[in-house]
Amino acid sequence: MRPAEDRYRLRSYRTAYGTSVFSITLVLFMFGAFLTFLYNTSALAEYVRENFGVRIELYETAGEAEIGSLERFLENSHFTEKVSFVSKKEAAQKLESELGEDFIGFLGFNPLPDAFELILKKEFTNTDSVSKISSLLKDQPFVKSVYYQENLLTKVNENIGRLTQLLLLFTGIFLLISVLLIYNTIRLAIYAKRLTIKSMLLVGATQGYIRRPFVIGGILQGLAGGVIASILLSVTLITLAAKFPELHLAKNRLFFASISLGLTLFGILITWLSNHLAIKKYLKISLEDLY
Description:
Blueprint (H helix, E strand, L loop, with lengths): L1 H49 L2 E6 L5 H13 L3 E7 L1 H12 L3 H5 L7 E6 L6 H12 L4 E5 L2 H42 L2 H9 L4 H37 L9 H38 L1
Antiparallel strand pairs: 1-3, 1-4, 2-3
Helix pairs in contact: 1-6, 1-8, 1-9, 6-9, 7-9, 8-9
């Protein structure tokens, strides 16, 4: 009977250990996915701001000297990140390539003007700054018109702060839920061994001796859960990046390395703390039962 009981206890222990690791892995994976979503949302808003462009169209009377003078003005302006000149010939070739038709031959002339494509520094991509820059550019000689996506800029600037606050709130809530789920999973696993703990106390085992294997086991569970969650998250992101390359999900490798390390350390920390608190509770109950 004894070997049968030992095998049953071993299977029960492996089942409880596997359940704990699975729960920890799932929670850490979801938390990592949420942090990744938060990061990519912020990165997307930052990308829009860093690539916000202004198109400056010129009059047909603008010669090479006037174009060169305006280009030097734009390059030396404090709000300029990048500027490029697009001649009417280049613009026509690009449009013909997109349309697949020779519209110049049909019209008999090229209606597209010479223009500058101006990329602003991100600190100037707010509604007031762009409006002032637009007015300044319109006052320059030979500038016919200035175009930019005002609606896009307004929506990005209005929603970026609101979205960041909302995501941070949900991150905090999810973090709390994650801690509680891991703690309850570990507490239930230790609860199943409460009789063993009491028996060890009855034969004179110290609290430190009883606590040690639980704490070490918890650290190993957290390490295993963190590593598995990091691998699953990496595989998921690589798969999504391959299917949706325009999202640039795997672009920042340093961030994902930091996420993987953070998940592993978080798993170790929370499982160590959860085991320490849970075993302390049952050690206290067992000592009270002795007297």
